[in-house]
């Protein structure tokens, strides 16, 4: 069963490229033709690939590149530069990275010499000297394109797009982004130089296609897998019954993209072991419950009774004061009122102990100070700093239902402030 | 003897061997013929004489530099040596190594003739001697500045030094004055170039490919159609200034894509042709671009470099240019300077722009400045009075193209290549003229239309003309905003969330709501639709996904359930997208 693990993990976690990504044929063709024209004919172009997170933009690009580089003459001529807006946060760093990746002559070993101005002048000079028929085309891939638009003056974008519109070295500028309004970020000069080609990757799967995709993801290849009986049993157990369909429908309604599907399938895969060699619907149910559990409710389960009472007191204060911020003293007063009136089981805690519990809640970000800077400067006394509760009432009630050994009077207090 | 890797701090003592051989009265230096290096407390001394190869402290202890001593001198009580540098294999840039044509030996060193390294070094940085063998290899001469003569090098390990492995490894106790430049290997003579391809690019084959090549923005024609008047005005201005030998300023404005830079280039080309035919005195043409600089003051550096080839710091360059344009020089040519994207040269004190417009007013400057920017009222808006007055009133404004002009541009580019249907061209021109009048946009859409025509044609050999349908598809692709499609392709929970946002806005009567309020609506809506209401985390995740696409505008997510939500799409669009289900 180890091979199952390796094979499926490779598929799910390591972003192994599928032969052809499904449902994106026209986009694949569009991008492929564009890059082929740059590589073979020396025609400069620029294109943006736009799509929500997890829909396969980088995967599409990598598929197209893999197919393109399979041809030998393209592989030998095309130069590639990969930039990422999260890594190259400044034009200076981006320039050094471009120079390093292109191995221009001012690079020795791994070190790029020269100041920012010199690097820019050098790169522009190098690109200017080239021409369509005799220079190797350069492919610039800009991941997180919208972050490049936040650099000062957008100089890098302007220069790259200007090269793509001049009779210089043929370049192809491919930007990947998830923002639909990315063109509004570009300055008018940069926008004019951009060719406005956009490839939209919008997931348009129906539920039945989604189910088929799930089965395809978990399917073991009959031909290459060594243990054929195991493979056959495994594939046979992948049929979809009612409960499985219900769970997958819930997941599909929440999000259609494949990244979260892979997360779900990984959770299931982790349960497969020597003792447990097949997938059962119960596994899927458990995995789904794990992934869709509320994060803050889980945090609340780990609180002490005192902290829980403070949270309930804050809930009541929210009801009374209609969402206005409060401070520790007010919470403590509310808590004392509960102790006096109703509580039999709880000890009458002192203020310093309550304050410690309150600070713990603050560390967990269950409460947040209204004005973070003042909290750090600690201008006001700690008990009188205003804070807000970051939980929704439904989360508190849900947590209380499942809280182990919760005292009944606390539960009753949570339900109603007066009773 | 056993060798220890201890870092014993042994000081090296340098002494001249014998008396000075000669004395140079002008430079006040004494020349010696040998140098003795001894380690503290150790009997052995190394003697270095002229012509020996030595190791010099390098960037780190494992990579010393290699050089050959040519002279040993003492000046101002400091011991110095003149050397001839050699480069080790690791210091040569990889593309120069490729010129060698073979794999270099790891111990190989190369004769370094770059004039960028100082030949004088402080004697205290000499570590040890080294033996160099010249092997019988072919003399390979490369065409670049660095002459390379392959020579084999052999390290001489000193067995007698017991305390440390090799003398290279003893760290210096006394600080070494780096008389040598710290990075003598900076490739000062690097030539900027992109490698060239082995097979030439394929030429366009069919008519459509030919059309596509011509319609590319970069294939600027010799003479721009529809800009004849502007061409004439600029030509007259520059010609008159150059013929008179005076200076002047001109400000050219217009929205992007109206042919400003292309027209100026055309003017310069024809003036250069005229000066070749001796109708017009010779002149220099320089071009700088505000966007291609990292800092406004780099303008001085670039102008100086393009005028005289000198490299200098911005301040020094400014001073040199000031001197050049203020004083009369013999047989000085006029200089025509094109400043593109002028608004980026703005600084708070505006001294770059001031200088650029002041130098033409000097009598002996002979500088003609043509500036290009996008806004017509740039001088009034961002320039202080004295700068705007020096810019003067010679202004020219390039209007956006009308649809007839765009049509003419495309036709002249295609120039008898039959690729487009008449009405298809008209549609594109009208559409683009109505929106921006940007020629680049028009050309790109036409190019995309040819691509679509090629792909969708049933017979790949004979794609036919580009028709209305192709053009409309191209327009659709390049002008659309995908918000409506994105909402339609969103998941069920995301669509419900958008609907609850709308409901909450209607309830509050505002354009903004907190996530908590929207969540209440969302859960109610789920119950109405018969779906299981999502947990708070799931709803937050759906909200974040919508925010990442910018269908919603969100506050930072550290605010959790308290973050405020706004719509980035109009409410009607959302309703339209959700209704069509």
TrEMBL record, chain A:
GO terms for biological process: DNA replication initiation. One of its GO terms (cellular component) is cytoplasm. Transmembrane segments: none annotated. Its main location: nucleus. Keywords: DNA replication, DNA-binding, Nucleus. The keyword DNA-binding applies. It is found in: Nucleus. InterPro entries: AAA+_ATPase, AAA_16, ORC4, ORC4_C, P-loop_NTPase. The keyword Nucleus applies. Component of ORC, a complex composed of at least 6 subunits: ORC1, ORC2, ORC3, ORC4, ORC5 and ORC6. ORC is regulated in a cell-cycle dependent manner. It is sequentially assembled at the exit from anaphase of mitosis and disassembled as cells enter S phase. Interacts with DBF4. Interacts with POLQ. Belongs to the ORC4 family. Component of the origin recognition complex (ORC) that binds origins of replication. This is Origin recognition complex subunit 4. It comes from Gadus morhua.
TrEMBL record, chain B:
Residues 46-177 form the BAH domain. Pfam families: AAA, AAA_lid_10, BAH, WHD_Cdc6. Component of the origin recognition complex (ORC) that binds origins of replication. DNA-binding is ATP-dependent, however specific DNA sequences that define origins of replication have not been identified so far. ORC is required to assemble the pre-replication complex necessary to initiate DNA replication. Residues 177-192 have a biased composition (Low complexity). Residues 145-161 have a biased composition (Acidic residues). One of its GO terms (molecular function) is chromatin binding. Its main location: nucleus. GO terms for cellular component: nuclear origin of replication recognition complex. This is Origin recognition complex subunit 1. Keywords: ATP-binding, DNA replication, DNA-binding, Magnesium, Metal-binding, Nucleotide-binding, Nucleus. Residues 138-209 are annotated as: Disordered. The keyword Coiled coil does not apply. One of its GO terms (biological process) is mitotic DNA replication checkpoint signaling. SUPFAM superfamilies: P-loop containing nucleoside triphosphate hydrolases. It is found in: Nucleus. ORC is composed of six subunits. It comes from the Eukaryota. Belongs to the ORC1 family.
């Amino acid at each position: 069963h180890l091979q199952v693990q390796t094979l499926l993990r490779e598929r799910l976690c390591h972003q192994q490229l599928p032969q052809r990504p499904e449902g994106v044929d026209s986009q694949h063709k569009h991008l492929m033709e564009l890059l082929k024209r740059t590589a073979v004919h020396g025609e400069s172009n620029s294109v943006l690939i736009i799509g929500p997170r997890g829909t396969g933009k980088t995967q599409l690009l990598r598929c197209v590149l893999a197919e393109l580089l399979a041809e030998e003459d393209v592989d030998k001529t095309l130069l590639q530069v990969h930039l990422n807006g999260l890594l190259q946060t400044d034009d200076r760093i981006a320039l050094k990275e471009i120079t390093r990746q292109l191995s221009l002559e001012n690079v020795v070993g791994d070190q790029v010499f020269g100041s920012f101005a010199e690097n820019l002048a050098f790169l522009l000079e190098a690109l200017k000297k080239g021409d369509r028929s005799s220079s190797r085309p350069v492919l610039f891939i800009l991941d997180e394109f919208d972050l490049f638009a936040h650099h000062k003056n957008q100089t890098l974008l302007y220069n790259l797009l200007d090269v793509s519109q001049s009779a210089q070295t043929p370049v192809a500028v491919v930007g990947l982004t998830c923002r639909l309004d990315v063109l509004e970020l570009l300055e008018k000069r940069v926008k004019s130089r951009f060719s406005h080609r956009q490839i939209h990757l919008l997931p348009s799967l129906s539920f039945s296609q989604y189910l088929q995709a799930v089965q395809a993801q978990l399917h073991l290849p009959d031909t290459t897998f060594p243990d054929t009986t195991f493979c056959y049993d495994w594939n046979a157990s992948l049929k979809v019954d009612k409960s499985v369909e219900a769970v997958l429908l819930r997941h599909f309604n929440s999000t259609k993209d494949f990244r979260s599907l892979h997360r779900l399938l990984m959770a299931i895969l982790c349960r497969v072991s020597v003792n447990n060699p097949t997938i059962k619907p119960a596994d899927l149910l458990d995995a789904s419950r794990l992934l869709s559990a509320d994060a803050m409710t889980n945090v609340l389960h780990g609180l002490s009774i005192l902290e829980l009472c403070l949270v309930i007191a804050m809930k009541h204060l929210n009801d009374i004061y209609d969402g206005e911020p409060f401070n520790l003293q007010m919470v403590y007063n509310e808590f004392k009122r509960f102790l006096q009136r109703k509580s039999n089981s709880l000890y009458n805690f002192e203020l310093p102990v309550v304050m410690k519990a309150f600070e713990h809640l603050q560390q967990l970000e269950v409460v947040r100070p209204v004005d973070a800077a003042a909290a750090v400067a600690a201008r006001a006394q700690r008990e009188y700093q205003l804070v807000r509760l970051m939980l929704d009432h439904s989360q508190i009630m849900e947590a209380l239902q499942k809280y182990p050994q919760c005292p009944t009077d606390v539960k009753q207090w949570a339900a109603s402030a007066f009773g | 003897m056993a060798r220890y890797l201890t870092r014993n701090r042994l000081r090296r003592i340098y002494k001249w061997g014998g008396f000075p051989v000669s004395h140079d009265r002008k430079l006040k230096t004494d020349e010696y013929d040998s140098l003795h290096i001894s380690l503290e407390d150790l009997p052995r001394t190394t003697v270095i004489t002229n012509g020996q190869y030595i190791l010099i402290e390098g960037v780190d202890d494992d990579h010393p530099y290699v050089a050959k001593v040519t002279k040993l001198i003492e000046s101002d009580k400091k011991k110095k040596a003149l050397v001839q540098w050699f480069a080790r294999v690791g210091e040569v840039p990889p593309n120069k190594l490729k010129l060698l044509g073979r794999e270099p030996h790891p111990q190989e060193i190369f004769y370094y003739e770059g004039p960028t390294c100082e030949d004088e070094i402080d004697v205290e940085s000499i570590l040890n001697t080294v033996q160099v063998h010249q092997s019988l290899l072919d003399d390979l001469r490369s065409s670049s500045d660095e002459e390379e003569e392959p020579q084999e090098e052999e390290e001489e390990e000193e067995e007698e030094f017991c305390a440390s492995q090799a003398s290279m490894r003893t760290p210096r106790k006394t600080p070494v004055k780096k008389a040598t430049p710290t990075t003598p290997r900076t490739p000062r003579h690097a030539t900027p170039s992109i490698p060239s391809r082995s097979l030439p690019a394929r030429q366009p084959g069919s008519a459509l490919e030919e059309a596509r090549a011509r319609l590319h923005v970069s294939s600027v024609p010799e003479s721009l159609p529809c800009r004849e008047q502007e061409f004439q005005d600029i030509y007259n201005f520059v010609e008159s200034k150059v013929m008179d030998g005076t200076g002047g300023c001109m400000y050219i404005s217009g929205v992007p894509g109206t042919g400003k830079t292309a027209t100026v280039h055309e003017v310069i080309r024809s003036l250069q042709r005229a000066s070749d035919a001796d109708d017009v005195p010779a002149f220099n043409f320089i071009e700088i671009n505000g966007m291609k600089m990292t800092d406004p003051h780099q303008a001085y550096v670039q102008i100086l470099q393009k005028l005289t080839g000198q490299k200098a710091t911005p301040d020094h360059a400014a001073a040199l240019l000031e001197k050049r344009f203020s004083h009369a020089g013999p047989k000085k040519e006029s200089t025509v300077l094109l400043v593109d994207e002028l608004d980026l040269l703005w600084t708070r004190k505006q001294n770059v722009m001031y200088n650029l417009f002041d130098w033409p007013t000097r009598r002996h400057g002979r500088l003609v400045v043509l500036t290009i920017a996008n806004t017509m009222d740039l001088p009034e808006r961002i320039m202080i009075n004295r700068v705007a007055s020096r810019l003067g009133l010679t202004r020219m404004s390039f209007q956006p193209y009308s649809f007839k002009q765009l049509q003419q541009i495309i036709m002249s580019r295609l120039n008898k290549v039959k690729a487009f249907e008449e009405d298809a061209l008209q549609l594109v021109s009208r559409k683009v003229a109505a929106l921006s009048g940007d020629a680049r946009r028009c050309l790109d859409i036409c190019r995309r239309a040819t691509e679509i025509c090629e792909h969708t044609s049933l017979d790949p050999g004979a794609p036919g003309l580009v028709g209305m349908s192709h053009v409309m598809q191209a327009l659709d692709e390049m002008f659309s905003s995908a918000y409506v499609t994105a909402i339609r392709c969103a998941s069920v929970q995301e669509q419900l969330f958008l609907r609850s946002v709308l409901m909450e806005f209607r309830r509050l009567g505002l354009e903004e709501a907190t996530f908590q309020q929207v969540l209440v609506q969302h859960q109610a809506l789920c119950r109405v639709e018969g779906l299981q209401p999502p947990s708070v985390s799931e709803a937050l995740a759906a909200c974040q996904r919508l925010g990442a696409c910018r269908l919603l505008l969100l506050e930072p997510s550290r605010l959790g359930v308290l973050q405020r939500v706004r719509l980035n799409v109009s409410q009607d669009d959302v309703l339209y997208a959700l209704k069509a289900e």
